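User: DNA-binding response regulator. Structure?
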Amino acid sequence: MKLLVVEDEALLRHHLQTRLTESGHVVEAVADAEEALYQAGEFNHDLAIVDLGLPGMSGLELIGRLRALDKTFPILILTARGNWQDKVEGLAAGADDYLVKPFQFEELEARLNALLRRSSGFTQATIVAGPLRLDLNRKQAVLDEQPLALTAYEYRILEYLMRHHQQVVAKERLMEQLYPNDEERDPNVIEVLVGRLRRKLEGDCGFKPIDTVRGLGYLFTERCR
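Assistant: Predicted structure:
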């Protein structure tokens, strides 16, 4: 998933970007609200982590601005303010969850995963489509009860398509899930990865859930639950 991290403390910002990247996300980490607004306006994100104590425009103001711009992705507040009034204000501004510093990364990751699941319409950590089962926590795919050997990039594409099942997903959206920088993105790479993914899914059982919608992108045709 593509995440936006807004944290002015440089060491924590670096730590979050590193750990979340290691967890399989594409992370854009910025130090202030103005840069966050620019990133949110120019690029698609699946979730934002916002510190309340930002320089200049506060995290609460930023959240309000994002919602006013019709940005509907989940927002997790990350802050040192632990009293209930601050939590109420943050949630009222449009945030979806709240985590107080200091925190354990495992709790942060669990909250992020829960928010991402709910935003995709899933309540469980497993997505099922026909003979295919995707374990979102383990980042593992199982086809006909057999583990499917996918590369990290193949898994990311499959997860994104299944989260957005029965919707056309543009190549650009898939590229954003793999590469943080514009200059690294190559549509031909997506075609190669999707081709390899299709062959692995078809296997011996003939499962063909990914269609190409010419000129638009890809469609995971199976209903996921």
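The mean pLDDT is 94. The first helix runs from residue 10 to 22.
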